[in-house]
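Quick log. Single chain, no ligands specified.
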Amino acid sequence: MRFLLLSAAFALVGTGCATGAPVGGRHLFVERYEPFARPAATREIPEVKERPAAPLVVAAGARATAVGTAQGLVGKNRVVVGGKRYGDDCTSFVKAIYEPLGVNLLTEAEPGDNGVTAMWRFASRHGRIFEGGRPLPGDLVFFKETSDQNRDGQVNDGLTHVGVVEDVEADGTVLVIHRVARGVVRYRMNLNAPTQMRTASGKRLNDWLRTEAPGSKPRLTAELFAGFATLLPVESRLAQR
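-> predicted structure:
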């Protein structure tokens, strides 16, 4: 019975968001278990393939709804939307934001994908993925290598974390709402200064997203950025930001 319980627990580890250690602070984290199975295989970021597809059909104001839902969850350690309880990982959080809009972000998953990679595939086939420019509130933001998911000590885990863009400040700092180990939080990311945590005046530009671990340095949000994805219709008020 004990073996079955442990096996179930390890199975669940593979289904959640691969952020590994609790994020947000700079401290040493050591995994305190040895998995029964061999480490997972190397995962690469899928190539973005543009595929003609009909625009997603969502209600007017979908972006504002998505952002409002995300903002309402900041500070909570349980994700409940519309009376439905979602899982305690980053993909479940994003699913909770988009599912009420009638968008299932996991329908393009392929064998071996984690939830983040499945959402990346969906975005590349039903929306647009981009690395530069200015995202809009309600867009998705993807990160890579936020933890050593396959536990081999190498940088080969591909896409491992996802969040929702809340807003973009005048200096280009992107406000990201996402689910980490301690709950739903708001982090900052500035791609113009990817290795800088604060300005000389003390303004925060980036937060720690990957914590320090044996053989691994802590990394800031912008250092682990993989891409933005836009899926929802662009409304005129947001387009003018």
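The first strand starts at residue 80 and ends at 81.
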